[in-house]
Design goal:
The protein is α+β, with helices and mostly antiparallel strands. The chain is 48% helix and 12% strand.
């Protein structure tokens, strides 16, 4: 894990492993896994990570992520019912994806010439929404502090953009 420890403000990474796996790296003074990086264990990064984790606990951001993640997936499922080019929506917490298909039943993909990424990126940027369309998938990873009204705004913009792309591609609803 990395960026989330300091919210990306300063480089910090960590590894978590079960005891039996971690013990394999301990070894002895003569035989051990030695791996460090230039900022490994830096006190400023460690202080930032500790403060960030404290804030995450105090503001209950993990709980908000779970609650808002469920709400986000419900809203995306509603969009799926409305838009035939949405083949699937999936995710957990606040990480979600929208799969775009030419045919929902067969899961036929759109040809590369459909330029889905460019079409969606243009529409999202026009609306001030910064999402990552990757070919036939739209990835969503909003901040842990997101609210219902912000999710509603995101889904409104998605609804509009998907509708416009369907119209451009001649998809019947």
């Amino acid at each position: 894990m990395a960026k989330g420890l300091t919210s990306g403000y300063i480089p910090m990474g960590a590894v978590v492993a079960r005891k039996e796996i971690a013990d394999a790296f301990v070894g002895s003074e003569k035989v051990m896994f030695r791996h460090v990086i230039t900022f490994g264990g830096h006190p400023v990064a460690a202080a930032a990570a500790l403060k960030n984790l404290e804030i995450m606990e105090k503001e209950k951001l993990v709980e908000n992520s779970a609650r808002m993640g469920r709400y986000l997936l419900e809203q995306l499922e509603d969009l799926k019912e409305k838009h035939p080019i949405i083949g699937d929506v999936r995710g957990k917490g606040l990480l979600a994806g929208i799969e775009l298909v030419r045919d929902r039943k067969s899961k036929e993909r759109w040809p590369q010439e459909a330029n889905l990424r460019e079409r969606f990126l243009t529409k999202f940027l026009r609306e001030g929404l910064y999402l990552r369309p990757y070919g036939d998938t739209i990835a969503l990873a909003p901040p842990l502090c997101i609210t219902r009204s912000e999710i509603d705004e995101i889904c409104h913009i998605l609804d509009k953009a998907i509708g416009e792309v369907e119209e451009e591609l001649g998809v019947k609803r």
